[in-house]
Write a structure and sequence with these properties.
single chain; alpha/beta; 2 domains; 16-stranded mixed sheet
């Protein structure tokens, strides 16, 4: 498999601003990309990449550390069967083999993860793999740890990979995903951490020529979870579908950042993230960036974020950004919203004998249902809906207890 090349942006000539149209600095080259921690300043709220993040709650992730090794990793098939011949699992030193070949860290936390860890778990996919590969990441303690995962699909590979996170942890995670020519790959990352857990991750994604990648992120728990995703295309007619689901409880901060770079002709991208926030101090952040370079005619790009605020006191930050440096495109757009329950939907259900609690549950299930179904893995979809129902029931119980306490 050929090494993915780093994103390069043309540099404008200050003496001739018309020599290279649309060559002004963009979000892809405004900040450094490096494996060197010192290439990045210490994060501060005044910096655009960190202005929504409670950096005082994750400052331990900004300095190189010695990993605890407490995090347990298991790799198998989702049905419990052995790994088939099309799945090759290896452990390598960081910087050797396929690790470090998909772009470079784009912020200080990602560079710290790279320099703190020692090994990478590498999953190579080839041929048609009928059952999803399951990677279990279990946090077994609150000592600071690091984990690096590489998912590499060969040309024409067809495969699904599910990465489940649970337990109690403070985890710095790096993920590299590369898809070969004309491959069809789905990756689903589920964060279901215990209370007090912290997870700072960076996904670096390279979509091959004519390849299709569905990248799903589901975050359902953790004191602070911040995941940044940086992507580019390796050839014409790549297709990227990024889906996100999150449910934020009181006091939690859940943050997702996507960076889609259209640097090849005739590629398509869709980014759709939906979240629900329940309880005082629940805080979500979604920042979606899309860049269409001069080298990417025929681009078709769209990004969407919807937030459902279930109770007063929750805060949802939603920021879509679109940079277009090429006028020869099919389309590019973005949208975002933050709102509460639709009173008409609730009234309609309650007027037909549905209780308020059940009506709220039905509305939230409908809000998430389209994305959950698109994940396409029945066991995961069913589990997600069960978790959402339990969160809603717990929220109702907590609200009732607060009312009784105030009385």
């Amino acid at each position: 498999m050929t090494e993915a090349k780093e994103i390069t942006i043309p540099t404008a000539d200050p003496n001739d601003p018309y020599a290279n149209p649309a060559a002004m600095p963009s979000s892809a080259d405004r900040n450094p990309r490096s494996f060197d921690v010192d290439a990045f300043p210490m994060p501060a709220r005044k910096q655009d990449d960190w202005r929504y993040t409670p950096i005082e709650r994750i400052d331990e992730f900004f300095t190189v550390f010695t990993p605890s090794g407490e995090t347990r990793i298991e790799v198998g098939m989702i049905d419990g069967s052995p790994l088939p011949s099309g799945v090759k699992l290896t452990q390598t030193k960081l910087g050797e083999g396929l690790s470090g070949t998909v772009s470079k860290p784009s912020d200080r936390a990602a560079a710290v993860e790279w320099n703190s860890g020692a090994t990478a778990t590498v999953i190579e996919l080839s041929g048609e793999i009928k059952q999803p590969v399951l990677v279990k990441v279990h946090g077994a303690g609150m000592d600071l740890d690091a984990f690096h995962l590489v998912i590499a699909a060969a040309d024409n590979a067809h495969a699904d990979v599910v990465v489940e996170h649970d337990g109690d942890a403070r985890l710095a995670e790096g993920v590299e995903i590369t898809t070969g020519r004309h491959s069809q790959v789905s990756t689903t990352f589920v964060q279901e951490w215990g209370a007090g857990s912290k997870h700072v991750g960076n996904h670096r994604i390279h979509v091959g020529e004519g390849a299709s990648l569905r990248h799903c992120v589901v975050t359902l728990g953790g004191d602070v979870v911040r995941i940044r995703m940086d992507q580019d295309f390796g050839g014409e007619q790549g297709d990227l579908n990024m889906l996100g689901i999150y449910f934020v409880d009181p006091g939690e901060h859940i943050e997702h950042r996507t960076m889609v770079v259209h640097n090849q002709p005739d590629c398509k991208s869709r980014v759709v993230y939906k979240g629900a926030l329940d309880g005082k101090g629940a805080h979500s952040t979604w920042v979606g960036n899309a860049l269409i370079e001069p080298t990417a005619p025929g681009t078709d790009s769209y990004e969407l974020n919807r937030n459902l605020v279930l109770t007063p006191g929750a805060i949802a930050d939603s920021e879509p950004n679109l940079e277009i440096e090429n006028g020869n495109i099919i389309g590019a757009g973005h949208a975002s919203s933050v709102g509460r329950f639709n009173d008409e939907e609730l009234f309609y259900l309650e007027s037909r004998g549905v209780s308020e609690t059940e009506a709220r549950k039905l509305v939230v299930r409908g809000f998430f249902n389209e994305l959950v179904e698109e994940i396409g893995i029945p066991a995961i979809c069913e589990h997600l809906m069960d978790v959402i129902d339990k969160r809603l029931a717990r929220g109702e119980s907590d609200a009732m207890a607060q009312v009784l306490e105030e009385q």
